[in-house]
Amino acid sequence: MQKKNILISVIDGQGGGIGRQYISALTSVLPKDLPVTIRALGTNSLATSNMLKGGANDGATGENAIVLNAGRSDIVVANAILGELTPTMAQAIGASNARRILIPFDSCNTRIAMLSNGPLQAFIDQAVRMTTDYVGELL
């Protein structure tokens, strides 16, 4: 029996740096034989390109790509500031049945009660652990 392919969509804006860090860290710990696709979804082409350089399997750019893929994903990791994430994108992500993992940082004014303050890398590491744990549940 063929295993289900798990789609992990990583959404980022600006230069895609946080998405790239997350994808790079995730691909370094996921076994290569797992049926997982990591999709880079950038609010702009620079963000998508940078996340692809981090090791995403494929990518797409813009509002329609994010809206379409949010509903197809098993896991959505979102991060964008300064207005790149439109209300339509946010609504599609929020309405998705995907497991949503957010990487907050000080300048976006988002806080998650179960995490303490810390460096951005600690949040990326926690997001990678949450993702790999959930991939294990899905398989």
Descriptive tags:
alpha/beta, globular, 139 residues, 5-stranded parallel β-sheet
Number of strands: 5
| Helix-strand makeup class | alpha/beta
Strand order, sheet with most strands: 3-2-1-4-5
Radius of gyration: 14 Å
Uncertain segments are none
Helical proportion, percent range: 40-55%
First-to-last CA distance: 12 Å
Mean pLDDT: 86
Structure description:
The structure is a single chain. This protein has helices at residues 17-29, 45-53, 63-70, 87-95, 120-138, and strands spanning 6-12, 36-42, 58-61, 75-79, 99-102. The chain is globular. Strands 3-2-1-4-5 form a five-stranded parallel beta sheet, with helices on both faces. The model has no long low-confidence stretch (mean pLDDT 86). It has 139 residues and is α/β, with parallel strands linked by helices. Helix 4 links the parallel strand 4 and strand 5. Helices cover 42% and strands 19% of the residues.
Question: How would you summarize the topology of this molecule?
Answer:
Blueprint: E1 6-12, H1 17-29, E2 36-42, H2 45-53, E3 58-61, H3 63-70, E4 75-79, H4 87-95, E5 99-102, H5 120-138
What's this model, at a glance?
With 139 residues, the chain is of the alpha/beta class. The protein has helices spanning 17-29, 45-53, 63-70, 87-95, 120-138; strands at 6-12, 36-42, 58-61, 75-79, 99-102.
